[in-house]
Design brief:
Layout (H helix, E strand, L loop, with lengths): L2 H13 L2 H11 L1 H35 L16 H39 L1 H6 L5 H33 L1 H7 L7 H6 L3 H19 L3 H22 L7 E5 L9 E8 L4 E2 L10 H4 L2 E8 L5 H30 L5
Keywords: Membrane, Transmembrane, Transmembrane helix
Organism: Streptomyces fuscus
Protein name: ABC transporter permease
Amino acid sequence: MTALSLRASAAESRTRGPRGLVWVMLRVHQSALLFWLMLVAVTAGGLLWAYGPGADAAWAEYIEAGCGTTTSGFDCDMYGTAFQRYDNIVGVSSGLLTLVPLLTAAWAASALIGRELENGTARLAWTQSVSPARWLAAKLAVPAALLTAGMLTLTLLHRLMWSAGTELHEAWAVRAWDDSAIFLTNGTTATAHALLGLAVGALVGLLLPRALPALAVASVTTLAIAGALVELRPHLWPTVTLTSTDDVPAPAAVVRDGALTSDGSRIPLPDCLGEPGCLTKHDITGYYADYHPTSHFWPLHLVETGIVLAAASVAVGAAFWLLRRRTGGAV
């Protein structure tokens, strides 16, 4: 074999390697890549603005109104223009991050997997010395790496913005650490949910190898999973109980509350408005609230992250198993 043919063979081998698959992935889905980069850039810009000039302007407006002192007046309960602008940017930025799993699942099910199975380009790739398993691995690995890098960056910026605006959030009391969007985007759970959306989308795309039906099913499935996790979240870690004999305690992140009777039993709060002797008639001697203090943020976050990543792993395993069955065990 001549040196020229050896070089040609080596070049052909490099083209068929993993780098070739990655390059093809980026070329075929460059519109999705550009959209993701734009989304990351816009969200990062909003968070940086809220961290710096937005928060400064809102706090200056609050102080100029005579608030934050012992002589604070009625006007302190009214939002100014600067705070409304700041709060809108915080809400939009957090909302965009919570939409990433849904957008990822819809794209993965339709454009990434479903469309290529529907129009036959996937089978064409499998005849070009690219096994189905390598094809699916590239389809998942490249978006997963980009999602992880982008989401972790935005999560760090969101935490920076949230930590810097603690006094502002406490002053207006319009957002709390346990709000669904704030909780999700202040830690690792946001990235885990995005990866779960990718895994669910890929699995649905293999189950329903048609772009539009796969898009619809993946979107509904992702929304259902997200809703179920929101309901499950308060029960992922033991709560702390606060009791009072005067009035219903009102800490943040309340899971359940009610009234206490003389024997320590818990009962729902009765409607005693304007009814003399109502509390005595119901034998109410105090009140209770089961809640999560701020120190429970990371335990709740890490438990949910583990659950979501485990679910994503199961979905990825199911996708490879299904692809193996569809292709007759080819690897």
